[in-house]
Amino acid sequence: MPGGLxxxxxxxxxxxxxxxxxxxxxxxxxxxxxxxxxxxxxEWAGTTNPGLHWWPPVPIGAVERPKVTRVNRVQVGxxxxxxxxxGSTGPQAVPQESLMLTGDENIIDIQAVVFWVINxxxxxxxxxxxxxxxxxxxxxSALREIVGKNDFExxxxxxxxxxxxxxxxxxxxxxxxxxxxxxVTNVQLQKIDPPxxxxxxxxxxxxxxxxxxxxxxxxxxxxxxxxxxxEGEAQRIIKEGEGYREQKISxxxxxxxxxxxxxxxxxxxxxxxxxxxxxxxxxxxxxxMDKVLIESGTGGGSGVVPYLPLNELTRRPAAGGGS
Length: 323
Hints:
Elements: H1 8-24, E1 27-30, E2 36-40, E3 43-48, E4 51-54, E5 61-64, E6 72-76, E7 78-79, E8 92-93, H2 95-98, E9 99-101, E10 107-118, H3 121-127, H4 131-147, H5 152-156, H6 160-178, E11 182-193, H7 199-268, H8 270-286, H9 310-322
Antiparallel strand pairs: 1-4, 2-3, 2-5, 6-10, 7-8, 9-10, 10-11
Helix pairs in contact: 4-6, 7-8
């Protein structure tokens, strides 16, 4: 070649150009949603964050850039319909995954969705071979363990939130033991029902249980009504008794005070007090009598008019007292 480029000098220049081009291909960019995993002769050498980096290109090195912000989902107990597949019109149940045994030895049908992201790209690529299958197996195992510790009715009703929370923690623990580099973000229970072949019988049981609850509520309401009525009546009787007691105490206190007052007068003027008491008693005794007494003795009844209508005199006071 002209200028002697066909000798060793030309070969060195060509090799240098090729090496420069090869080195330039070692620059790579990690996007914000990615994480770079640098490989040296196929071995994991390091992890890089988003930005521009350089690493020896093939055949010495290579770079894997999995997306670490993408939320992945794994279905347990069912699979979504596959678009374009004949006969696939909706979610398909997977009984070998969904049917589980509860703590009270009942069978329950559970379907769940587990959401996860990559939190360590290097561990994710090198420690597990089938990430989706690993997450699915760990999720099924965790759900079976949790459901096996709870009763059927609790798991089906008020225990849903507790099962979701506990399942998330247990799945994360299993994946951490595997060194999977995966973080579980959420667990959602889609369905918790009895098996389909006993669903009608279960509904009959639920209806009977509802009737039982209704009867118990009615009985409790009747019981409360009767008890409250009886308590009200008891309080009324007690109040009446207390009022009667206070009345009698007041009357007795008044009688005692009156007696003491009379006794004090009696001690001062015995004859006068005796005569006054005697006259008051005779007045009260003879006030209702229909007899006319005429004193005999000195003078006899000479002061009485011979034709005095005594019967009329006795009637008038009686009529006046009645009116």
